[in-house]
Write a structure and sequence with these properties.
The protein is of the alpha+beta class. It is 19% helix and 14% strand. The protein has a single domain (4-67), classed as Ribosomal Protein L9, domain 1 (3-Layer(aba) Sandwich), CATH 3.40.5. A hairpin with a 5-residue loop joins strand 1 and strand 2. The longest helix is centred in the C-terminal third of the chain and has 8 residues, at 60-67. The N and C termini lie far apart (43 Å).
């Protein structure tokens, strides 16, 4: 099983390939999308619902660059 996870700049994690997603109890979570929330604001966690663009989420690199100014 080969999986590639791409970190989108200021956006979600994009998962490519076959994978299973399980909760803390080991129960399989049905896959609705292949994009996983990174901003913490999604109402459909763990999946991305686009909230990152509405709340101005910035990935680590952009956030660090802003604090260094």
């Amino acid at each position: 099983m080969s999986v590639t996870i791409t970190i989108r700049e200021n956006g979600p994690y994009l998962v490519d390939g076959e994978f299973r997603l399980v909760d803390a109890a080991g129960n399989e979570v049905p896959l609705k999308k292949k994009t996983l929330c990174r901003c913490g604001g999604s109402t459909t966690k763990p999946f991305c619902d686009g909230t990152h663009s509405k709340i101005g989420f910035q990935g680590a690199i952009a956030a660090v660059e802003q604090t260094d100014k």
